[in-house]
Specification:
Elements lengths: L2 H14 L1 H4 L7 H7 L1 H4 L7 E5 L5 H9 L5 E6 L5 H10 L8 E6 L11 E6 L8 H13 L1 E12 L2 H8 L3 H20 L1 E7 L6 E7 L2
Parallel strand pairs: 1-2, 1-4, 2-3, 4-5
Antiparallel strand pairs: 5-7, 6-7
The structure holds S-adenosylmethionine.
Length: about 210
Amino acid sequence: MRGGNEYRLFYSQFRQHFHTTGAIAPSSLALARAITAPLAVAHSGTLRVLEVGAGTGAFTRAILRHLGCGDHLDLFELNPAFKSCLERRPAEARAPERGISVCVHVSDVRAMPSGDRYDFIVSGLPLNNFAPAEVEGFLHLFISHLRPGGTLSYFEYLYLRDLKRHLVQDAGERRRLDQVKIVVDRFLSRHHAIATPVPLNLPPALVRHVRVD
Ligand SMILES: C[S@@+](CC[C@H](N)C(=O)[O-])C[C@H]1O[C@@H](n2cnc3c(N)ncnc32)[C@H](O)[C@@H]1O
């Protein structure tokens, strides 16, 4: 599935599962390139990569381009409607011929085995849609699954949280958005993080690369 069909599938899932899908369209090529940039840096040995909230695989394509023989990619996607789309990505990238192993898990990432460790985690989760305690839980989960020296890369939509905060009438929803911001800011203050704006996305986004020592 390419192009229009992929967009139609994504949009239909956005309408049915707004809370967990969190976007009207798959991420752009510019965002996929920016979020996978740490994978382009030279590294020694084989890599283990985790992608969370893979959707139709916009980031998966970019991740697979950077991987080589002996590397492994685990994908977690909650929504089974995206399964067949994701299962096509390894063949499209000729991953088996290139010696890359890929495992597609149609599951909530919070159900993953506790002992697995990764060099890179790429997350597409819509953190601004979740309760503050859930956001804290996801960030803690990611850090606990990174090897020392590993990198977590995730994105948020630019200005969206502030815009929503000003538009919503519901005081409880405003409080939730404020508390999510506090949780994320506290997390970022504890780690070395770099932010890269990506204007070429709908809506424009900000990628964060967080390095864990
Ligand atoms: C904003 S979309 C991003 C999709 C894709 N990475 C992209 O950038 O086009 C978020 C995705 O996260 C998935 N998701 C939400 N909660 C999840 C969870 N707890 N575990 C795994 N996937 C989840 C949704 O089903 C959705 O496909």
